[in-house]
Specification:
single chain; mainly alpha; two-stranded antiparallel sheet; 4 strands
């Protein structure tokens, strides 16, 4: 094995890393900031994914009769909670549910939804997988191979501050869209309840609580 192809020991790698770290100004401050930013990104991603899980497993189908349980569901999910797909598939599911719930949406609105979901996913992946170039005065992600493909939608995302601002903006917008979708579904469920059961959801809940001895 030649000198060029020798595999360094752990001690050698540690010594080399420490030498590099000593030459980087404000490294501790930069690392602390990146830890916080990546943490925020993870938490916001989890919030959106939890919303997707709840809505995909609880909405999307209307007037479904479960023959096994002999129960009628005014609104039922398109997937079971125990059978949830990956995040990107959930995004496509959610996009379809929103489009079906609001069939009169203009094409621009549908495009904005698809675009925001795509960019949210891409930025999420950048913060999860791409390392930072600590030598840059302004924090930047490494946008060279093998990470170049992460920035195909927007090369400006290599700037950490810009990428984070974009991510938070898409998070806030998607959260508002999800809340509006949920309000619409609750209204539709109330209408179906009144039409087919002759009772409001509040009345049905109260009867169920009395039956179970809660009230």
């Amino acid at each position: 094995m030649t000198k060029e192809t020798e595999i360094p020991t752990i001690e050698e790698m540690k010594e080399k890393a420490l030498k590099i770290a000593e030459g980087i100004p404000n490294l501790r401050e930069k690392q602390k900031f990146m830890t916080e930013v990546r943490g925020v990104t993870i938490e916001f991603s989890i919030i959106i994914e939890m919303c997707f899980n709840n809505l995909i497993s609880a909405t999307g189908k209307e007037m479904v009769f479960d023959h096994q349980k002999k129960e009628l569901y005014l609104i039922k999910g398109v997937r079971e909670k125990r059978d949830m797909p990956k995040f990107k598939t959930k995004s496509r599911d959610m996009e379809k549910l929103i489009s079906e719930a609001f069939p009169n949406l203009e094409e621009d609105a549908k495009t904005n939804l698809s675009d925001s979901l795509t960019k949210f996913e891409a930025l999420r992946d950048i913060f999860a997988h791409v390392p930072v170039d600590w030598n840059k005065e302004n924090l930047e992600f490494i946008d060279e191979e093998p990470y170049k493909h992460f920035f195909k939608l927007d090369k400006n995302w290599k700037n950490v501050f810009f990428a984070h601002k974009e991510f938070v903006g898409h998070f806030q917008w998607l959260l508002e869209v999800i809340l509006n979708y949920n309000r619409g579904i609750l209204l539709k469920k109330e209408l179906l309840s009144q039409i087919f059961l002759g009772k409001s959801q509040a009345e049905i809940k109260e009867e169920a609580e009395k039956k179970n001895g809660i009230k």
